[in-house]
Amino acid sequence: MATTHNIAVIVGSLRKESYTLKVAKALAKLAPDTLKLNVITLHDISFFNQDLEANPPADWLAFREKLHHSSGVLFITPEYNRSIPGVLKNAIDVGSRPYGKSSFLGKPVGIVSNSPGVLGGVNAAMNLKQLLPGIVGPIMGQPEIYLTSVGDAFDEHGELIKESLQNVLKQYIDAYAAFVGRHHR
After folding, report:
1. Distance between CA 44 and CA 171 in Å, rounded?
2. For residue range 154-174, what is the model confidence (pLDDT) as tens digits?
3. Rounded Cα gap, residues 125 and 135, in angstroms
């Protein structure tokens, strides 16, 4: 029987009806049985402040605990001003501290960017690829995924209705499951 790996899916948008959250939920439904995707929103994580590291806030500890109990991490992000949203950078700062004790270490990472436009958040994904080495585990290089034109991909209930996007997400999550499996033998 195959092992089921718990994956922390970090949603880099706070907007209630965000495409990023919808993509995360769609991936959770498409994931193979070897993955259980736990979608994490960032509404309750306070700002990182190194002065608080000696006695971290409860929200930081809860977030780090979710990461510790995961076998991998998927970052799902929109692009804000050619970069990742500040809330996502803050979560990375919280999860990667204190120095040398990153909650992301050793965890296979996947990066999914999205946009209602034609570039698919590629700059945000590239920012994550620059930011994450040294504080996370291995980052899946292929396939890369920059989801374009996601504005019409979901119905009024947030369900994925765009078949071409569903196919791309299924291919990606299957590849990520294999990547996680290779790193947890």
Report:
1. 32
2. 999 999 999 999 999 999 999
3. 16
What pTM did the predictor assign?
0.96
CA distance 100 to 93: 12
Residue 120 and residue 134: Cα distance in Å, rounded?
A: 26
pLDDT in tens, 125-145: 999 999 999 999 999 999 999
In sequence order, which ranges of 41-162 are alpha helices (DSSP H)? 58-68, 86-96, 122-131
**Contacts with 85 (C-beta within 8 Å, 6 or more apart), sequence order:** 12, 13, 14, 77, 78, 124
Place of tokens 């945000």: 124
Strand ranges of the sheet holding 5-11, from the earlier edge strand across to the other edge: 35-40, 5-11, 72-77, 109-114, 146-147
Cα(121)–Cα(125) distance, integer angstroms: 6
